[in-house]
Amino acid sequence: MNHRRGRRKNFSNHRNHQARLPKVEFKNQIQLSEKEVGITEYLSPLEGFSAVIKARYSDFQVREIQLDGKVAKLTDTSYPKDFCVKTIGIDPKDVDQSPCEHISQEQWVKLKELLDTSEAEPIKINADGITKEARKEIHECMKKYFGKKLVVSTITVEEDGTSKKYIEIKKHRKGDKQDNRQEWPEGIGEYVHFLVYKENVDTLDACFKISEALKMRPSKLTYAGVKDKRAITTQCFCIHKVNPCKILNRTKHIRPIKIGNFSYKSMQLKLGDLQGNNFRIALRNVAASDDVIEEALNLVKNRGFINYYGLQRFGNDKEVPTYEIGIKFLLGQWQAAVELILKPRTSDDPSAFNGDIAKAKKVYAETKDAKKAFNQFSVSKHKCVESKLLQGIMETNENDYVNALEKVPRSMRLFYMHSFQSLIWNKMASKRIQLFGLHPVEGDLVLCGDSKDTCKEADDINLNDGEDEPKKEDSGTENTTKPEIKVLAKEDLENYTVYDIVLPTPGYDVVYPENLKEHYKAVLEEFGLTLEMPKQKVKTYTLSGNYRKILQKPDFTWKIMFYNSPTDNLIRSDFEELRGIPEPKSAENGKYKALLIDVNLPTSSYATMLLREILKTDTASSAHAKLNDYHDNKNEKIAVENGGDGEEPMDESPCFPGSSLLADPEKFKEFQNSIFSVVSGEKRKHKEDSECYKKAKVPHQSTETENT
C-alpha cells in the first residue's frame, strides 16, 4: 500500500525523473503522408523552418473552451465543501396516521410494531398493482421514518403457478443489505460537471477507466469533445446524481488522471457543448533565427491557415486508413468492411500491453473463427472495436455482417464515414485554392444569416460504449441542423472575403459549388460513389453532409525559449501549477531553441494544420521522429510516438521497469490495481468510501442501490 501511495504522490514528477528508467525508441508504423489525404497547399510564400512537433506529450497541452467562454483549467482537486447530503429521520412513534397513501393504516401500525419485536414476520405490500412511482414513494417513506432500522426490498414470489411482486419490509439484522441511497440536496442541479485532467490518455480510455472505478457503464458519463491521446488534456465530464466525494474517492488511484472543479447544473453536458479548444504547444530544436520565426508567425497570424482535416483524422496506419472502411460502408460492402477492421497490420505487436488485439486479429485472419479469436482478448475485452465486432459475428447468423456491425458503437461507424468525407473535403479545398486562389469567385458558397454563428459540424463524435444507439424508430442518420447557404453571384463578391467561403462534405443534403461540382463528381466516382450520395436501406450508413470554412485565422501568441536537454519541461501543466511547481524558464546560454505557441481554435480545427503552415513541413509523426535525434547525449534521446497505442517514452509514461507485464502475473496485478482501481471485496469498498466522507465531512453514501 505504501508503494502505491508513493507512486500517486509522484503523479506529475514522473515526467522529470527520466534517469530512473531506461530509454526506448519507437518503431513507427507505415503512416499516411499529407499528400495522400489531400493536404497539399500553403497560404504563406515563406519557406518555413525545421522544428520537432510533439517530441514529448507534455509539449502539446489542450484545454476545452466551454460555452461560457471559460477555459477548462484544473484548479481544485479537493472534496467539495458546498455539497452535503442529509437523510432526515422522524420518529414514527410520533406519527399516528399512515403518511403514505400506498401503505394502509393497518400496515403502518404493524410497521411500528416491528421496531419493538425481534421475531415479527416481515410485512409484505402487494406491488403488482402499483406503479414504479408509487413503489418509490414507499421506499422514501420507509427511509424517512425508519432509516436503517427496517430493510426494504422488492421480491418476486411464486403463488399458484404465477409470479407476484411484493415490497417486503423487515427488521434489520446483521448481514442484511441496506438501501443507503440519500436524497439529492435541494437547490443544486442534478448533473455533476467536473474537469478531467489526463496525461497521455485519450477521452475514450479515460471514460472507460473512470466508469470502471465507479462501477458504472461508460455511457453514464458524457463529455463535450473527444481529445487525442498524445497530449496533456483537460476537459469537462458530466454524470447524473453521483456524489462528488464518491467520484474523487473511487478515481484517486487512476494514473495519470486527476479530477476536480466540481459544479452542479440542471442540464446534461452533450457533445458539441464547447466553443473550441485552447492549445499550448512547444516546438523543439527550432532551426531558425528569431527574425525568421517572427516573420513566419506574423504572416500566419495575418493570413491564417487552410482548415484541412489533420492526419489524425485518418488513423495511424497507412495499411488500413479509416476512410477505406468508410468507403466500404457507403458502398454497402459489409463483409469487406469487417475484414478491413479485423485485418492484421505489420505494426501489430502481440507482446504489447494491448497485444491481445493483435492476437485476435491474427487468429481470425487464419481461421475465420470469431469465437476463437474473441477468446484471445483479456485487457481489451469489450473495450475496442475489434472485440465488439467479433462478438457481433458470434451472435449473428453466418455472413450476416450488417447485424454483426451493429455491435460496434454507431458513433464509431459514423467516424469511419466522416473520415471519408474529410478526405474528399481536403482534396476539394486544395483544388479550390489551386484554381481560384485566395479571393471569392462566382459560384462560391458562404454561410448566411444565423448560420454564421450556429453552424456546427458533426465531427466530435461520441465514443461511448454503444449505449447511445438510436431507437428503432429513429432514422439512424445524422441529425444536424442544416445551415442556410448563399451561392455568390458577381455582384456579391465585393461583400465577402475568402474567410467567408465554405465547402461541403459530400452527402445527400448539401449544395455543391458550381465552380467545383465536376471535380467533386470526378473524385467521388473514383471510389464508386455519386454526387447525390443516395440514402441507403441501412440508414445508419447514410450521410447528409455539412459545410466547413476553407480558412481559419485565429489570434495567437508566442515566445522563444532555450533549453539544454530534450527531457526539459517547457510548459507547466495545470496540475503542476496546482502543486506550486514554478513555470519553466528559458535556460541561459541553452543549447537548443524552442518556440512556444498559445492559440484558441474553434471546434474541429486542427492545431497541427496551423503548425504546418508555420513550419512548411509534413506533420506526420514519422517525419518528426527523424528530426528528434539531435541531442549530444544519445542516452537521453526520446523518439516521437507514432500516434498509436505503441510503447511510450519511459520518461513520460507511467510504466514498470523490467520484463513484460503480461509475462509477470504479480506485476500485471499491480498494474491493474493502479490503473483500474480494482477493489477486492465490499469491506474495502465501504472502508474507502467511509474515509472519503469523513474527510469531506458529509454523510456516507453507498453504491448499493435498488430499482424502485
From TrEMBL:
Region spans: Disordered: 1-20, 459-483, 682-708
A cellular component term from Gene Ontology for this protein is: nucleus
Q: Which UniProt keywords apply?
A: Isomerase, tRNA processing
SUPFAM superfamilies in the cross-refs: Pseudouridine synthase
List all Basic and acidic residues biased stretches.
Answer: 469-483
GO molecular function (one): RNA binding
Give the superkingdom in one word: Eukaryota
GO term, biological process aspect, one: tRNA processing
Q: Does the keyword Transmembrane apply?
A: no
What reaction(s) does this enzyme catalyze? a uridine in tRNA = a pseudouridine in tRNA
User: Any idea where the TRUD domain is?
Assistant: 304-553
| Family, as annotated | Belongs to the pseudouridine synthase TruD family.
How is this protein named in the record?
TRUD domain-containing protein
